[in-house]
Amino acid sequence: MSSPLLSPHELDPLVRQALKEDISYGDVTSETLIPSSTTTRAVIRAKQGVTVAGIPVLQKVFELLNHSVSITVEHGDGETILSGQTIATLEGNTRSILTGERVALNFLQHLSGIATLTKQYCDAVRDYPTKILDTRKTTPGLRTLQKWAVVMGGGTNHRMSLNDGILIKDNHLAILKAHGISLTQACHLARENGPHCVKICVEIEALEEIEPAIQGQVDVLLLDNMTPDVVRKAVTQIKGRALVEASGGITLANIREYAAAGTDYISIGALTHSAPSVDLSLEIL
């Protein structure tokens, strides 16, 4: 599985910064104890079931540290593997492998954690046409990587940035209302003044807001913090006149209820802001 979100141009500064953070003045332990000419072989192994994400970052770490370290990928991005399986084998300068170990694992564990959680959500709704979306609740500086990991887990990216779509949220509506502008008028303003072909989504918190939004010709209705029963009523009321996205309070325990209610999309901030890192290890052979 691949994604246009990730490019070497974007990876380079991120990995350089991570390496600088960890080895700005060298690896004193390895340089003190390990002869510079020593070579070794190591594997990166999963210690739990994971969906892999981060191979390009692993490769970039050792490309920047030492071109002579070779990496053989056993299981690539987007693959789901079992505990004990090998993700990649590394061969080359021992110091370089030891020096790059933590930075490489930090990226791999974090990104694979996002991919693994995303796949769990996608698997939970596999019987429905609902798409799982991420949000902009990402770690500053890591959005591209984190959203790429969501794709590796089978999810779909929501807006990458504020210019990727018009999303009229509660705070926008509160400000406009204070200036005498209704929800319907706000939607019309977005349609009239927004860029051509950009989708318009409006966040609604109650069923009575559906018709004013529909009158404003929105593309997507974001049902915020509604129960599955209320979402089902909303879908019935909308009758296909707009796409339906549900968000807020959605977990692995209840996501099937939201998908069964007829949603087109379910957006989950936890994919990027709360995914636990998976357990991986680098073992010298």
UniProtKB/TrEMBL annotation:
Gene this protein is translated from: nadC
Source taxonomy: Bacteria, Pseudomonadati, Nitrospirota, Nitrospiria, Nitrospirales
Keywords linked to the UniProt accession: Glycosyltransferase, Pyridine nucleotide biosynthesis, Transferase
Record-linked InterPro entries: Aldolase_TIM, NadC, NadC/ModD, Nicotinate_pribotase-like_C, Quinolinate_PRibosylTase_N_sf, Quinolinate_PRibosylTrfase_C, Quinolinate_PRibosylTrfase_N
Entry superkingdom: Bacteria
Domain Quinolinate phosphoribosyl transferase N-terminal: from-to ranges: 27-112
Keyword Nucleotidyltransferase carried by entry: no
Limits of the Quinolinate phosphoribosyl transferase C-terminal domain: 114-283
Keyword Kinase: no
EC class (word): transferase
Assigned protein family: Belongs to the NadC/ModD family.
Pfam families: QRPTase_C, QRPTase_N
Protein name in the entry: nicotinate-nucleotide diphosphorylase (carboxylating)
EC number, UniProt record: 2.4.2.19
NCBIfam families for this protein: nadC
Pathway: Cofactor biosynthesis; NAD(+) biosynthesis; nicotinate D-ribonucleotide from quinolinate: step 1/1
Function, as annotated: Involved in the catabolism of quinolinic acid (QA).
GO molecular function, one term: nicotinate-nucleotide diphosphorylase (carboxylating) activity
